[in-house]
Fold each of these.
Amino acid sequence: MANSNILGKYSPYNTIIHRLDPRFKLFSLILLMVVTFLPYGNYTNRFIILGVLTFFIALIMIIGKVSFRSFFKSLSSMWIMFIFLLIFMFFIPNEGKYLIHTFENGYSLYYDGLLNVGHIILRLVLMVALTIILTSTTLPMDITYALEWYLTPLKLLKFPTQIVSLTISLALRFIPTLLNESNRIMNAQKSRGVDYNRGFLMSKIRSITTLIIPLLVSCFSRSDELAIAMEARGYDPYKKRSHYKTLHFTYRDLFAIIFVLLLGGIMITASIFACYYQGCDDFINIIFGVPTI
Amino acid sequence: MEQEVIKVENLSFSYEKEKKILNNVSFSINKGEYVTLIGHNGSGKSTLAKLLSYILEPNKGKIYIDNEELNEKNIKNIRNKIGIVFQNPDNQFIGSTVEDDIAFGLENRNIKQEEMKKIVKEYSKKVGMENYLTKEPEELSGGQKQRVAIAGILALNLKIMIFDEATSMLDPEGVEEIRNLILRMKKENPDLTVISITHDIEEAYLSDRVIVLNEGKIYKNDIPSKVFENEEEMKKINLDIPFVLKIKNKLKTKGIEIDENIKTIEELAKYICL
Amino acid sequence: MSLISFNNISFIYNKKDPNHYDALKEVTFSIEKGDFIALVGHTGSGKSTLVQTLNGLLLPTSGYTKVLDYYVTGDKEIIKRLKKEKNIKKRELKRFSHLRKEVGMVFQFPEYQLFSDTIIKDVMFGPLNFGLSEEEAKKRAIEALDEVGIDYTYYEKSPFEISGGEKRRVAIAGIIASSPSILVLDEPTVGLDPNGKKEILSLIKKIHEKGTTIIIVTHDMDVVMEYASKVVVLKDSRFIKMVTPSELFNSKDLSNFSLEIPSFYKFKRYLADFGFNKDITNINTIDELVDKIGEKYGK
């Protein structure tokens, strides 16, 4: 019951976004993330483009009934990073184009830093939003199926995709079980006088071992029993297995993919043009978006 | 002639140097029988369960399943004849949802998808879980999880089913669910052989035959009414007797005979009153 | 004054979430010193939540649980009132160390709390946490292990190399070693065979006879019938009633609480349903009942 999941949790609605093919969703997630991180020349361009993206992403969140609450919750766990960025990008560089104020000791603050922080934070927020859209509209199992599908070419190189995807799905399956278990163990140890919140390094480490050791012991016995149960039901990792669920690509997915590709295409073109006219030949610029103008 | 599906011959087992946990045990089970195996902790019954499901290998003696010796070479073949429901409901739930879990064994046997969908539907109905197909294990009770495990094995259409203390971690409601399910299953498919290792004596009373283990040896091997006949004898090896029999025995000392076929509390009350 | 009292307590899981869930609704009752209470109700009726307010693992969203002279609450109104009327500070309300020493809590599958390299160290862990000296803790541990029937040859063994039933007894020793005055057990017999069950239950009985107040959460009605002095019934997060076991099993509304009925009472019920012609309402043993049946047959 004490589920805190930073990257979002599946919410069982049945919206258009939920029904889309997970392979497509995974692909769009990556494409849109790349698009957010492309260079778009000067600040005006950047904020216009990010504004457009924000609009679409917000729209998708509304259509997919993604809980804004859990979205802000995940953001709130990142506030330390935001402050760190603010200090780093705004207060430290002593250069820029648009001066705000020069202090008596000669130190100057520039608007550039502020714009830059805003830009980076906006990108991060969009990234979190995209991830949350994926996780809250797609079952973990379906994400695994999608991953397995993308890994299929590796089969040619004798990579055991089937085993890897089964392992991932088992891990996902056992996360809630183990969360419940650690909750129970912690309660038992608290009742024996362990205080997980207080104490300094050494006593903290000691209290954590009272959780970790029992949890490991139980994990071992669980995996042992699980392996026996799987074998008893005829599992053989190297035999061909059929699939109960396969993914189906529909017309709906086709429309969606055309839309996403168009959006991505426009953004990439915009980026290329911006780079051509305003110059952003620096590789670092492309990756980190640090302005060199 | 009755067809033997399980034959255990002079089976012995011990961990290194320790005293024998199983000592020269022999018995056989016929096709379509429902046999329960009981005994208190340390009687060797859980070791026997492990030997039957080939988690352990015997030191001495042999086990034949459907006339095939149980060994390293044959095990893959034998897995297609025998299904096991284990004790811990969580640790045998492999799929991420009910339908995925029922399908797991079918996937391993490379069954076609359309066919799988049909089978999953059919067998989830048999165990009364058809409305829970997309549920995840966290949303189910222990009894429901065990029913899913049973469906997953029934779906494979095997000859033999072993229940390895499948009800010992369940609440009374779950125990009752599984008890009734086994009886229903047997009614629908008389050819299915069921072996249940259990400490639920009420379940034992409802089975066709009871094998009692004590200190690594077979203590009794008979129909339930004969096995539980002598209360004192059972108490001696730390086993209780079913409630209905307790009443029957007490009435017997008063000279009141109750029909042999009466096995449930409801039937007994009805018999007395009508 | 009562040893423990639940005062109009409610508990809501994920209070701020849209899918919050009321685990307890306005529960009020009290428990006296020396009681052996069985807490029953269907799965999800709120039993486990209720007992976790006893040592501050969960704080009631409204209302308060009073144990000895501790107030366990997360209700802002009550916290304010306590400060005003009794001068109890908020800070003090969050210190549970002493309360947890007084209320021993045995969870389901307690063997999963074992973590030390030797049994004796594991049992000493609780007493040491509660501030006892090494020497005193060891003395207590030995007494506790004695009580659960684990002898000295086991002390230096690893708790991971003993049998399941022994592990459970060691885990229970780890709790009674802090000599709590209240012992709470959540389904202590799940997964054990009938003998293991009997062992644990007679152990609990022994602890009760020494004056410890026992609260046991259970599904097993035979346990209720045989050991409990009073039964508390919960249904759908609400307190229904507190009665003696035989009152509970003879009551007409029993089937409303989705409880399993012990074979004996089930039998009585069926007899009544099928129109048994003798009065058996006040009969509570098998022998008496068999006598009545004998009378019917004229023997």
Amino acid sequence: MTAHESLGERLIQQGISRRAFLKFCTAMASMMALPPGSAMAIADALSKTLRPSVIWLSFQECTACTESLTRSYSPTLESLIFEMISLDYHHTLQAAAGFSAEKSREDAMHNAYGKYLLVVDGAIPIKDGGIYSTIAGRTNLDLLQEVAKGAAAIIAVGTCASFGGIPNAKPNPTGAVAVSDIIKDKAIVNISGCPPIPAVITGVLAHYLTFGELPELDDLGRPKSFYGETIHDRCYRRPFYDQGKFAKTFDDEGARNGWCLFELGCKGPTTHNACATTKWNGGTSFPIESGHGCLGCSEPNFWDAGSFYSALSMPAGALKLGTAAAVAGVAVGAAVSVANRAKKQAAQSAHRTATIADLKE
Amino acid sequence: MNFPPIHAQSTYSVGNIRALMNEIVACLEKLDRDDEIGMIDLNSLPFSPGEYEALRQTLGQGEVSIRIEAIGPSEIIETHYPGVWWVTHYNVEGDIVADAIEIAWLPQIIRSQPEDVRAGLARLKAQLNDQD
Amino acid sequence: MNEVLLLTWVRSTGLSIATGIFVLGTLWRLIEIYTLGRKPDLSVPRHRAAASGLHTLFRRSLPAPGMFIRASASYLAGYVFHTGLFIVVLLFAPHIMLMQSLTALSWQGLPSQFIDATAVLTLAAMLLVLVDRINNPVKRFLSTFEDYAAWALTFLPLLTGYLASRHLLLSYTTMLALHISSVELLLIFLPFTKLMHAFTLWISRWYNGDINGHKGVPS
């Protein structure tokens, strides 16, 4: 595979018809929330694009992001995504191992310096010099800084790379941070989610290839076309929330009727992602449709934001001061009361009865 | 203890269908008047379970139904309302990858693509040359 | 600190501190007030004092003769915002969830559209009483900083709650965090300001009715 042929040429070599490609672009346009008629324009732009070199670095992660991407739709349509890019380094997917694997990364960096895309999944530990996660004897921190230097743009895939995710959860023993905490001088797009929706990963890649730039981002660096609205806003169960119809347990009448899961701890109202419309497993459903509330996995610190099963309006932790405050309140009240009575008695005992003699003066 | 199985209510409509029908009417008027093609992406709509099927029933099936095989099947049917096409693309595993209502004289994907025509022409010529 | 952390803090530590101060302050003030005591009135009651006390509880909720015309803004807006607060605070489903988690009591909520409309009416009524307080020379003269502060402490939770539920101005997460913090401010200051009338109102009316009844001035 070479990086220097256009996607169109490559598709012809593979015997993929233009019509099949157009069909793929229709799916892309739908994912990117572009006007549905733009598939043709996307197909034109993509077929002329030179396939960019992509280096994928995996740090403190569980490989679910890669699982998510490689499970995106069927193997054949997903392989089209990999036709669009030249994936030169991905230590889970590549055949090469050991020194030759690291050499392929160095070659890719050398050949496309300043032009390659860097994809990162996983958080980066920085405590104690970053020794808590290493690849080929080098710390993740060191590797990221080196590879980021020559990247045209960085795509942080998953909540760990985007916001620190679970490695960053309290007490964060390895000092894990997000890509954007370390790299400040490059365009970074955060594709958060645990794991992120596969279509979002491919959609952002397609957008970059089609338009030559990253899509419009929200204030957390996430593409607006996927993270512009909350799960709650786009949820088909929203009307039940408005009517005040809530499931109280996971198997009651309300749950059976598909009522709102807010009271069971659904974080839909504070979670920005495309699950409610793009859905999972090739459009089958999404967590709420399967009867479980949203965990809020695409938001920063979702792991530390209170129980998954307590409603947003409920306390996120135990209210520890209750009893102590009540005891203190009674004590202060009693003390003030005693003081008041003492004052009253002092006033009474200091009271002298006025006599006629007093008035004469 | 014996609990009855849990089934989400499947007939509840959250009002998508009526809104969609109004949009289709507007698109059809544009097609007739200005020759303008309209498209409604169904993937981005928050359908409740059952609502999608209800939309299928509402639009019904008309005279034309076309099947394309291009990395998985695509199903294109003209609904009960001429000019309103339901275009569904599947992958090889049978999952829907794109689903739209296209308001057009003929959906774009049906036409032979110039690139494919050229490639086919080359193949045909090569075959003729082989026989010589 | 990002908005999720802020929200989590106000939902845990912040709420803990606020409810702690609220419980402490309320118990303190109530015990202080009711242990002050009164001298036993040894005279023969001229009227059935207890009945008069009971009657006063309700009687004082109605305008005195002629007053409704003279201060219609105060009465009308006053009724609307007190009733509105009651509905919005106690009958909105997420609020009931909170109450349930704190007290294990729960009851049926109202549809959020109804709560929405009530919140708008309540906000309008509260703005009206503020404008009336500033415009009316007597009320303005009698008003102190505490009066305006009490108004703001009540108004802010209502405003931020409405903005959060309608997704206006700021992101829902940030607005929800602001809403909860404004409620926490209200909880912290309620026992130490005039807002304490939420607790003392009924007993003090009873006292007034009772004393007046004893003296022969039935309500």
